[in-house]
Amino acid sequence: MAEVILRLLRSSTFRLAFLGGLLFTLTGLGMLGMVRWSTFAVLDQRVDGAIQVELERLNALYAQAGFDALAEEVNARANSTQGRQRAYLLEDAQGGVVAGNMEAWPGGAVEEGGHLRFPASQASGEPGSPVRAEVDPLDHGGRLLVGRLQSDRVAFEAVINAAMLGGAGLSLVLGCGVGLVLARRSLVRIDQINRTAQTILDGQLHGRVPLGGSGDEFDQLAVNLNIMLERIERLVEAMRAVTRNVAHDLRTPLNRLRNRLELALMEPQPQAEAETVMAEAIIEVDAILATFNALLSIARLEGRLPQENFQDLALDELAAAMAELYAPLAEDQGLVLETVLQPGLSVRGDRHLLSQALANLLDNAIKYTPPGGKVVVSVAKDGDKASLSVIDNGPGIPLSQWTRVLEPFVRLDETRQSPGAGLGLSLVAAIAEAHGAALRLEDAKPGLTVSLDLTLPKHGQRINPW
Amino acid sequence: MKLLIVEDDAQAAGFLARGFSEAGYAADVAVDGMLGLDLASKGGYAALVVDRMLPRMDGLLLVETLRRMGCRTPVLFLSALGDVDERVKGLQSGGDDYVAKPYAITEVLARVEALLRRGETAEAPQSLLTVGGLEMNLLSRTVRRDGEVIALQPREYRLLDYLMRHAGQVVTRAMLLQAVWDYHFDPQTNVIDVHISRLRQKIDKDFEVQLIHTVRGAGYMLRAE
Predict the structure, then answer these.
(1) Segments making up each domain of chain A, as ranges
(2) Does the pLDDT value for residue B108 go beyond 70?
(3) What's the start-to-end Cα distance of chain A, in Å?
């Protein structure tokens, strides 16, 4: 329990809420302090005014009727009903008390802006209340003190002190309380995220952060974390699949190679035949190395390309050059290789990689289209995209396999008779992604269209795919 | 002619050295960059084969240093990094050619031979290439064999041009793809073979002596005999 409280107190939410509460408290105290000060000033002013008037009257009486009349009047006033709320004291020139409701000159009185302040025990009024008084020296010696009991000031002071104390206490308590509640709320959510992270650290990649359902910032965080986790899980899965496939697809040719060499060693052979075996072994090894190289290229591309190698590429020229390279091969296979190239479309990209992608697409089309067929290389504008496509009228691929063929090592030819490791389209997909382009498969009816949709730079602007 | 191999993998260097000696070249081996620089700067080598990643001194730095010292010996880079930009970096630092690992020994041999011959052919600007009865007039861009004009497509002309300039040497498919088409990748199918066979049809078909030879496991060679 103590630990939980300690965690709550240490949480940033609590600290923030507490700080807010403290600030609010100080502001409240400051405001009440201002009210207190200005109210007292007003009260004192009013008392000062009344005292002033009374002193003027008494002075006038003294001037007209003399000291004794003044003493009489002072006593009369002191003993009247109002006298209980007032303080009077008249001293003669020798300092003796002549009249008033005070026994002696107030000791310990505080001088305050030309006025005296002293407690009421020395006056006739209620003991404890403060008295504010003014003293006038008389013309022929002696002095007159007139004062007012400020019991309203005491009452007000009590009220405002209570308000300040209570308010400060309340807002501090509320601040702490709210802080604790908020901290608990956020800690609960943070704990959920921490628990999910722990699950994933323990190897359970399917763990997800639960949503609160309110769509608050924690939910947004959870949604984003979940998207990230989803992607990581998919990548890890894909990596596992690739590792499995690599192991499988490389073991087979390596095993074949081993057997070939083993047999050559077992059967004594004439030189010429031994040479044939070795040449075949080298071809086999080259195929394995080619698979490794393709895997490496894909891996490198998935880390995304530095754009320094990107240049402005005229797609029609790029496609024409590659078509020219492949034309004799297509012709030898009994195929017609045509080009339909829209001029004037250029994109930013890596010439070698895009050429390689196109080469792989042409390799596939030529490999899988039966003699008498046709392969078309096309460059066309499609909205704000430029499509670089290879269209064949071969058997095409079944719709259900469209996503599968992009995965590494997937070959629809289950017997794996034709050469290649099934990495060609994966490499094209990786090259497309590195260029921020979409790789699109379409039914060419009959046949297959594979297109790279490359973003055309906006007029006068260089494209930046990320 | 003596070659220097700078490669920290002693076994790989040994294989290369044996390959070179089969082709008639003696080769020294340096196992790190400092040793390589030391040996190379003493001169006397016809060409250097330098690995990019070396202990004590990186291959790029080694070649840059050599070039600053005024050494013009041709350099072939070997590297596990097969990226085009790695190739460009290698060439910028002063290398003359680049082979990505894993390589075929025949590829390295062919490229080193091409580098060695480059010095000889580049000296005198030629207007006529001849191999046996085959003549290529570089000014009129015409090709004759035994006096008979052979009509070639522009790409076939460039292919033959490259083969004739490297007559008597093994030329690999990758070298042709780079030199004639300016592509630096390995196509899955051997598109180059088809182009060569087209060229063969025009150059060799009607003649008794074959000039374009296939070198098994390596590539092609144009030679009079």
Answers:
(1) 2-155, 217-301, 308-455
(2) yes
(3) 50
Report yes or no: B80 at the A interface, CB cutoff 8 Å. no
Radius of gyration of chain A (CA): 50
The model's confidence at residue A96, banded by pLDDT at 50, 70 and 90, is confident
Q: What are the C-alpha distances in Å from B108 to residues A226, A238, B97? A: 51, 36, 10
Contact of B128 with chain A, judged by CB distance below 8 Å, is answered with: no
Judged against a pLDDT cut of 70, whether residue A410 lies above it is answered with no
Residue A256's identity, in one-letter code, is: R
In CATH, the architecture of B125-222 is Orthogonal Bundle (1.10)
Q: Which two tokens stand for residue A90?
A: 């008249």
ipTM of the complex: 0.84
B2-121 homologous superfamily = Response regulator (3.40.50.2300)
CA-nearest residue to B84 within chain A is A352
CATH code of the region A2-155:
3.30.450
Q: Which of A290, A363, A350 is nearest to A318 (CA)?
A: A350
Confidence at A377, pLDDT banded by 50, 70, 90: very high
Which chain B positions have a beta carbon within 8 Å of A419's beta carbon?
A: 188-189
Model-wide pTM > 0.80 = no
Residue of B85, B104, B186 lying closest to A309 (CB–CB): B85
Cβ contact, residue pair B181, A286, below 8 Å: no
